[in-house]
Amino acid sequence: MRAGWLLAAAALAVPLAAHELPLGDGRASATPRAGYVMTCGAFMANAPGAFRSGDWIAGDHWDPARKPVVEGEVSWPNARIEVAVEGEQRIVRANNLPRHPTGEFPIRPGTRAFDYDRNPNHIGAQAILLRLPASPQPAARPGCVPMGMIGFALSGVAIFNAFDAGGRDAPAHEIQDRCNGRPERSSQYHYHNWSPCLAAADADAPVGWMLDGFPILGPVDGARHEIGNADLDECHGRVGPVRIDGRLVTTYHYRFTLEFPYTIGCFRGTPVMLPHRGPPPGPPPRF
């Protein structure tokens, strides 16, 4: 599975050359605004995270090619995810363990990553059960984006918004592994931005689902065009063809992009409410 997964990722990543990207620090908004995140609340003062930045950040830009990554290659053979339409709902059941290798967390002392980010968190199983609308509809007005999980990827990984807890551009400041993932304090492994390990054989197929039920696709479309902010609306999406449940339909969908805000800027539909989440009460879900 691992070899096929990474080959698919590499095939879709061909047009995505590393380059300098606009820094997203301060790009929080109280209203929908292209290139920003419409946030739900305030950020934390003295928030945990990377304690210093390196030469990959210069002024208002950052260069992913210069940024260190968390070393290691840890496999997760117990990773489980199941997505099924049941009646009017799309049900996601998962244990939040990734279907691809990760770096070694906590970040190991003596590595280059540790010089900038001393993330002490482990990757642990989470009890994920999402009941999303199978046929989502746009809301009367866009909704704000909270911290924590805002969607879920088909790789078995949670999707977070573009900011760290302190309101900085998370992909630019936080040190991630080679799949652009990392765990937070409750051990939930997550992405803030596009992962080279997250890919679909069909560029027009979803790579995940956001909490309002609309799909999110990768940053390259079926014509091999790299999607950017200029191609999308203020919520970071657009209406177009998507292959869902084996059928090509025209629907609203979000897109990952290489540039900030990376995932979504606001919810176009009505997101489901998540219960307060802590460590899973028992063993990971079994399918």
Structure, described:
A hairpin with a 4-residue loop joins strand 9 and strand 10 (158-160). The protein is globular, with a radius of gyration of 18 Å. It is mainly beta and 287 residues long. It has helices at 2-13, 170-173; strands at residues 21-22, 28-29, 37-38, 57-58, 61-62, 81-86, 89-94, 128-133, 149-153, 158-160, 181-183, 189-191, 208-210, 215-217, 237-244, 247-255. It is built from two helices and 16 strands. The strands form four sheets. It has an eight-stranded mixed β-sheet with strand order 11-12-10-9-13-14-16-15, with no helix packed on it. The protein has one domain (2-255). The model is unreliable at 1-17 and 276-287 (pLDDT under 50).
Fold topology:
Layout: H1 2-13, E1 21-22, E2 28-29, E3 37-38, E4 57-58, E5 61-62, E6 81-86, E7 89-94, E8 128-133, E9 149-153, E10 158-160, H2 170-173, E11 181-183, E12 189-191, E13 208-210, E14 215-217, E15 237-244, E16 247-255
Parallel strand pairs: 2-3, 10-12, 14-16
Antiparallel strand pairs: 1-5, 4-5, 6-7, 7-8, 9-10, 9-13, 11-12, 13-14, 15-16
Keywords:
287 residues, 16 strands, 23% strand, 8-stranded mixed β-sheet, disordered N terminus, mainly beta
